[in-house]
Amino acid sequence: MKTHSSILIKLLVALSLSLLCASQDFDFFYFVQQWPGSYCDTKQSCCYPTTGKPAADFGIHGLWPNYNNGNYPSNCDSGNPFNQKISDLMSSLQKNWPTLACPSGDGNKFWSHEWEKHGTCSESELDQHDYFEASLKLKEKANLLQVLKNAGIKPDDEFYELDSIEEAIKDAIGYTPGIECNVDGSRNSQLYQIYLCVDTSASEFIECPMLPKGRCASRVQFPKF
Ligand code: 5GP
Ligand code: 5GP
């Protein structure tokens, strides 16, 4: 009898552990894209990747697991480091997820940072390859630069109403984006990052449970790049 119940307890513990590991441990993703012109102004300077100046397009910053209350997990599994087994995605990553930090790099350091800080916290849903592939698909699906251009909002150093930027994205994608701004050397409020919320399988945009604080003026500059 005693051995039976101890086996039962062990089985129950194993079962609950496996359920705990298999269930996703975050509520949604922020999919964050950065405008390179503003990143370069924010840091006063930036460094183009060793692979060359990126296109004048939004670039991926990251796909960040988040909780509904605004908190977020980070650095969830040091046993699952960035392993670069994404060679089939490499040219697309270079184009769509370029690094602008100094000193110049080929992108691996940025991707590794994003995987280790954020990606490991959604590994129950997406392995490394899935994580990068899903991010690339989301960028294509959002097509932010084209959406803004269609609404007459272009990276031409002009100022645009924050509301009109939000509205253009909401009309095209169906959900309100989070807009984050920076202040450049001349104290202009600039369009820096756009946050879209995504379901836990990283395939569909959703309404944001919580919008990030944006620090934008009512009119913001969309700098050239
Ligand atoms: P910052 O303080 O510049 O807004 O953010 C620094 C870093 O913290 C971001 O690049 C990102 O890695 C992380 N971070 C900031 N806000 C959030 C958030 O709302 N959710 C998640 N998941 N990460 C965030
Ligand atoms: P976060 O924790 O803010 O997601 O990650 C930002 C980190 O990635 C910083 O250490 C930053 O230096 C590095 N990084 C490399 N390239 C870029 C880039 O193009 N944009 C941003 N925002 N961070 C970059």
Largest sheet: 5 strands, antiparallel
- Briefly note the CATH topology name: Ribonuclease Rh, Chain A
Mean pLDDT: 92
Domain count: 1
The CATH superfamily name is: Ribonuclease T2-like
Sequence of secondary-structure elements: HEHEHHHHEHEEEE
> Distance N terminus to C terminus?
74 Å
Identify the overall geometry. globular
- Going by helix content, strand content and strand pairing, the class is alpha+beta
Report on this structure.
The structure is a single chain. The chain has 225 residues and is of the alpha+beta class. It has one domain (24-221): Ribonuclease Rh, Chain A (Alpha-Beta Complex), CATH 3.90.730. Helix content is 35%, strand content 17%. It is built from 7 helices and 7 strands, in the order H-E-H-E-H-H-H-H-E-H-E-E-E-E. The protein has helices at 2-22, 36-42, 90-96, 108-117, 128-142, 144-150, 162-173, and strands at residues 28-34, 59-66, 159-161, 178-183, 189-198, 205-206, 219-221. The longest helix is centred in the N-terminal third of the chain and has 21 residues, at 2-22. The radius of gyration is 20 Å and the shape is globular. The protein starts with a helix and ends with a strand. Residues 11-15 and 17-22 have low confidence and may be disordered. The protein binds guanosine-5'-monophosphate (5GP) (2 copies). The site of one guanosine-5'-monophosphate has 6 residues, from strand 2. One guanosine-5'-monophosphate (5GP) binds at residues 34, 39, 61-62, 99-101, 110, 113, 117. Keywords: Disulfide bond, Endonuclease, Hydrolase, Lyase, Nuclease, Signal. The active site is at residues 61, 114, 118. InterPro entries: Ribonuclease_T2_eukaryotic (IPR033697), RNase_T2-like (IPR001568), RNase_T2-like_sf (IPR036430), RNase_T2_His_AS_1 (IPR018188), RNase_T2_His_AS_2 (IPR033130).
